[in-house]
Amino acid sequence: MSRKKLLDLTKRAARAAQRAGAKDVRAKAYRAREVELEWRDGKLDRIRESTTQNLSLALYVDGRYSGNSTSDLREDALDTWAAELVATTRYLAEDEHRKLPPPERYEGMFDGDLGLFDPNVPNITPDDRLKRVALLEEAARSGKGADRIVSVDSGVSDDESESVCFATNGLEAKEHSSSAWAWVTVAARDEDDRKPSGTGYAGGRFVTDIISEKNLGQEALARALAQMGSRQVPTGDYEVIIENRAAPSLFSHLIGPLSGGSIQQKRSFMEGRLKKEVGSKLLTVTDDPLLPRGLASTAWDKEGMATRKRVLFDRGAPQFYYLDTYYASKLGLEPTTGGTSNLVWGLGDRSAEEMIAKMDKGLYVVGFLGGNSNGTTGDFSLGIKGFYVEKGEIKHPVSEMNMAGNHLELWKNLVEVGSDPWRYSSYRTPALRFSKIRCSGAG
Amino acid sequence: MKKHDDKSMWSRRRFLASSAAGAGLIFAPPFLASCGGAKSAASTAPLAGTKPVGGGGPLYFSKFGIDEQALSKVLAEAMGRGGDFADLFFQHRITHYLGLQDGQVDRAYSDIELGCGVRVVRGDQTGFAFTEDLSAEALTSAARTAAVVANAKAGAPNKAFERPGVPDFYPIEVSWAELGIDKKIPVLGAANEVAFGHDPRIVKVQAMMSDSSGWILVARSDGKIFEDFQPMTTCYVNCVAEKDGRREENYDSLGMRGGFEVYGGDRIRDLARTAAKRTVALFDAIDAPAGETPVVLAPGFSGILLHEAIGHGMEADFNRKGTSVYSGRIGERIAPEYVSIVDDGTNPGGRGSINVDDEGTVGQKTVLVENGILRSYMHDRISATHYKVAPTGNGRRESYKHPPVPRMRNTYMAAGKHDPQEIIASVKKGIYAETFTNGQVRIGSGDFSFYLKNGALIEDGKITRPIKDANLIGFGPKVLEQVKMVGTDLALDGGAGTCGKDGQSVPVDMGLPTVLCEGISVGGRG
Fold first, then answer.
1. What angle do the packed helices B267-281 and B181-198 form, to 10 degrees?
2. Is B61's Cβ below 8 Å from some Cβ in A?
3. What is the distance of C-alpha A322 from the center of its chain?
4. Where are the alpha helices (DSSP H) in A362-432?
5. Partners of A31 in the beta sheet?
6. Are strands B225-243 and B202-220 parallel, antiparallel or unpaired?
7. How many helices and strands in chain A, by DSSP H and E?
8. Closest CA to B255 of B496, B493, B497, B438
9. How far is CA B325 from the centre of its chain?
10. With an 8 Å Cβ cutoff, is B357 touching chain A?
């Protein structure tokens, strides 16, 4: 199905809804082709290939609102569907804050090339994929300590997608994107029954974003072996370095409470803190939807509003809330955008390894195990996976430990930001060093 | 509705979820999820929803042009390169969400899923493709794609189809397909009123209910066709309360396979009252202790411990691959003799109950641990063939977009002999764990965690101060060995638990009697 056909379908569904009485409609559609190949211990494990499609309608009917989607794109089915939805929407309570973005919010949309589509992705052949997964396994099995391997899983995926957005008050937008990923996971045998695993992964918009299979395989093995003989350390306050790859999940707990819905529903510890310091001066982050090839780059947000770059944290102080048209109206504020794009950090001078080398005593956290954060109060408690460090050296892995605190204190203790942003997440976090976090394990 | 751009990140997320790293469980209501805006979809299109019982009558999917001849043709194509077996999974599922915020039922979302997944299996290798276009050409093309996994001569042609009946663990009285939205709106209105009425400190209430009517058809290369109608409803009530400038929030949820009759009686009022009660209780809570301490798990919801600590590790795919901490341990003692654990697809109306799994194995109850001995893993057809045992009915999938993998259903521990009060009284210093929000496990290392929302200190055998917001963490096999007492009061949770693994989400339930456990580390600040 071509992009034009997708756009035609959105218009058809929107017109059907308007004929049934909808005042305004936003219709979006996408079609994506995805292939994923998984390989395990020397042979093909699973191959998945599909083309998926979806059309969604946001309906504004007599001041009422509903959002709807379907994978059934038969044209006559769409017409009936749209008309029935309008009838259903009329039963809801009126909500004066529900409206399409005003047309000026669509204006000035970036129309250059964001580098979201790699023409080489659709040309990836089954042989290319097989070669890559075999290389990933081979690299893992050729590393030092490979005799302890229980199993190696490797995989690749690639996809190409087209999406369109149409709004009855004057928007037609489209996007063509691709991505390609590769990963490898090694499970290795520990002294007891434990079989810790380690993963290496890479990818992005372009095939060339998948860096060396050799490095990924060796990284997976090294990460699995590094966890051998893990134990707890005594409960106490520790200096903590969070690895760049692990940091997005920690940072997400600071971002969620900046959403308009959280603020308006009084579920946010960030309420009333715009332009006030919630973190140390080192916390400087920009939300950049126009970053070339960015994983979350886009010229239009989920409502079709034109996107632009904005400073999110300036030396520890949040600068805006993520406000879509609805929650902006409810809060009496100007909309910004409905959600995060690429987060670009102000960087420091040292990598995590360099920080560890100068650490006197503390923990190096490379992953989280469950846990949660209370967005209303800022309290958090997270399971951690990592290493105990003493006098610049990693002494042993730690397990069955938690770290706990409150985000409003935690980020003030941010004493160093790494030089190493993690490019395989749209959060792009560098390593983060905190002077003090309560960590609990034994005793 | 997610913008498409989110979607291109999907593969990576799927991989992150599927790597041996782990699996997890959440109770987060959809309207709190970060996907911004619209889970969508609509509704309507009431389609006759009679329960298929096998045997005669037209197939449900005949309205989409699917008859036995079409099935036969697609299966022949799927087996065209000599797979061991193939199956087609047709699904038509209509889901509605209705939301209340700031006192008004002012948002509705709906979603229609229609498609077919084609799977070809050779040994333990899987080829899979799906299509949302149910035309003969599109189905044949998907079958040809899935068949790529095999490379031998065409398999034997299908025998004549038979349509075995399936049990009915979720009869419904009031079908969602025939229910107008106007009947549902007052349910959320009542939740709002009860929650606000419970305590003047409640300042915000959000409520959302969902209902789903799903039809599936599994057609297999061995000539068997199964059909099922799978209803589901969930409801969440979330409250925010204020006291002296402090705020707290909490929730309660329900999840059941049932029709609108689920909301009869006091159920919605109880749900709203519980949500409000749990919220204001947090004002009195102090910081949880930090470090290892005895934990008494309250009945019901605490079954999350089983789900994470051992459930995932007993799913046979991880064992087949040798990556589970329970690999190769069938027949061994893994817990004291008073511990028995089952995974059950037959609980009436249970959120994790299934009449037939997503690859045509009839719903059943599976004993995992019997008097402390590991008896069985949870199998799908691939792992059952690998282990040369019968499949246990655990082959589940999120939708036609995914191949089935071994998944839990309703997982719980059998009741023991201790009086729950006696269990609490036996603890000198520890915690009592009551409600949770989420959990996670790393299957290979056996490390698991679950997040405590409401609990209390136990001091000198008595429940004293409430505690909140602490992650509990442990090593699965060790925790199971350190179950010290099991109560008489088994209860299922009945909440809206959703389990994520391999990039797929499926509904599950869990249960536990009051249990005393050691070897759990509490991530508090106290």
1. 40
2. no
3. 16
4. 407-410
5. A53, A162
6. antiparallel
7. 9, 16
8. B496
9. 22
10. no
